[in-house]
Amino acid sequence: MQFGFSLLPTADLRAHLAVVDAAERGGLDLVGVQDHPYAPPLVESFSLIATLLARTERLRFFPDVAALPLRPAPMLAQTAATLDVLSGGRFELGLGAGGNWHGIESMGVQRLSPRQAMAALEEAIAVLRALWTPGTADVRGEYHSVTEVHTGPLPAHPIQIWVGSQGPRSFALTGRLADGWAAPIPSYLPYEAWAEGNETISRAATDAGRDPADVLRMAQLVGTITDTPGDRDSTEAREGSAPVRGTADQWASLIARLATEQPFRCFVFWPEQGTVDQVERFAKDVVPAARALLG
Question: From residue 170, how far is each of 126, 139, 174 by CA, in Å?
């Protein structure tokens, strides 16, 4: 089981350092940095990740998730490998085919159809993996290509590619090719759709000759850890997209249920208020209680 929290990339570095320090001291595994380059005054996520990697020793970081259409795959591969090398193997790559196309188009990128976006994502994954492998990379695609490129820098560890898929085509691609599924927050993919997503991913993995357990499943939960109990609909999170608002024990019960009923093995907390207190509560109260429930 892995646990982490998501961070909105504002320019408030002091606040980010405080919550990241709380996560590291609290024993969390991951920090996801949201990626919204079309939404100033938010800062560029990879630059913030580089800064936070330099200020930490153990935490792993990933963009949650990077908008592929805004980044050519060869440069994305080099950026990811560089962050991994400089941090001693603490970078993973969350990747999306393009969710907010209005924002993406505002940055001068032509909109792709869903089928085109899936083809571009598949090509990008091939380019990324080729450039992270010793030797010469040669991948010819319609959207992403490299031609006899000598690879390097090579990552310090095998970088995981976690796809933020939210439809049948992207679920199938995730099962065939990705190292994990970063389930979109419920405002993009409601709770009741998570089980079907997991089933499609597992089926696609099996059809591709893979073990479905090799595809990490990450549940991303938005909400607030409260002092008083929340109502049942909020804390069970079975349908809809409402934030989870409940006590640490209610959060732990939700996590234990999701890990029991579905193959989720990673949980990322998206605090409604990204405070040190909320991150500490998740690390010190929710995570140990969830682990105890799961044995």
Answer: 15, 21, 6
pTM comes to: 0.97
pLDDT tens per residue across span 95-128: 999 989 999 999 999 999 999 999 999 999 999 9
Tens digits of residue pLDDT in 8-30? 999 999 999 999 999 999 999 99
Cα–Cα distance, 237 to 32 (Å, whole number) = 21
pLDDT by residue (tens digit) across 56-82? 999 999 999 999 999 999 999 999 999
CATH of the domain at 232: 3.20.20.30
- Taking the C-alpha atoms of residue 177 and residue 125, their distance in angstroms, rounded to an integer, is 8
Q: How many residues does the chain have?
A: 295
How many domains is the chain partitioned into structurally? 1
Q: Which domain holds residue 35?
A: 2-294
Residue recorded with tokens 């809809």: 240
CA angle at residue 66 from 12 to 239, to 5 degrees?
Answer: 90
Contacts 24+ apart (CB under 8 A), 292-295: 292/252, 293/252, 293/253, 293/255, 293/256, 294/1, 294/256, 294/259, 294/260
